[in-house]
Amino acid sequence: MQLTVVIPVYNSERTIAPLVERLQACLAEQIFEVVLVNDGSADRSEVICQQLEEQYSNVQFISLRRNFGEFNAVLCGLNHASGQYVVIIDDDFQNPPEAILTLVATAETEKYDVVYSRYEQKQHHWFRNLGSWLVNKLTTYSIGKPHDLYLSSFKLIRRDVVDEIIRYRGPYPYIDGLIFRVTRNVGSVMVPHNSRAEGRSSYTVRKLIGLFINVFVGYSLWPIRVFTWLGALSFGLSLLSGLMLLIGWLSNAFSIPGWGIVVWAVGAGLGIQLLFLGILGEYLGKLFMAYSGLPPYVEKKSERMKERKSG
């Protein structure tokens, strides 16, 4: 299998069948498979995906028991992908399926491990564009992303990187964070970006906040280290100010009021506490990242996978 196309499906009863049909047409000269992961859709997406699996021999369908989130659904799809290249594409037609060939050609020519799509003009709602910009700024510092790289959901990943990503067994996968734990050999290529074919984006304030928290505390010890630095700075300033107060008192250069000693004691104590909490947080953070073992998704059914295993 040369190519796997992973599609997280959520309330896409009107778009998923045309998308799969278009993939069959534009990738007709490729050896490929399509992995559909229904992420607890409330419409008829599950029924339609099951029909697509029965209609096409190269379509595999997995349905999750509830809505776990896009990244969890994508991780599920990656676990079922067998291609040497794995492309992740949304179910809303904003990324034209024909652009998959552009990602593949770029990966083969430039030998990138991961190829992200980038857009000259994004057709998202302004709120989603704002959220994407904020997340991209955050990931630049938290996971070491290059400043000029846009982390789009439409991307290609090589097989060996996929094999490392799917080793993750925690409950809060962030695919781009997992990618940058594995490789820095990442590039991008310009592709078209269309308006949504149907419906509206499920990108909400709640999901944006959840993503921020996930990236902020789940894939980097940077927040803990900020408090460690603040504690060290506060403690260092308190020591310096205490030394100045002591020298002034010994040399009779100035008198020390009672409230000054109280302020110094409070500052010194706060600095010590922040420093201690930061060091303690380093240990707890490393333990959390090493031993978090809750499942990222729970499968409800995967009939074709059962058939492959039994065969």
Automatic annotation (TrEMBL):
Residues 4-165 form the Glycosyltransferase 2-like domain. The keyword Kinase does not apply. The chain crosses the membrane at residues 203-222, 229-250, 256-280. Pfam families: Glycos_transf_2. One of its GO terms (biological process) is lipopolysaccharide biosynthetic process. Keywords: Cell membrane, Glycosyltransferase, Lipopolysaccharide biosynthesis, Membrane, Transferase, Transmembrane, Transmembrane helix. It comes from the Bacteria. InterPro entries: Glyco_trans_2-like, Glycosyltransferase_2, Nucleotide-diphossugar_trans. CDD domains: DPM1_like_bac. GO terms for cellular component: plasma membrane. The keyword Phosphoprotein does not apply. This is Undecaprenyl-phosphate 4-deoxy-4-formamido-L-arabinose transferase. It comes from Spirosoma endophyticum.
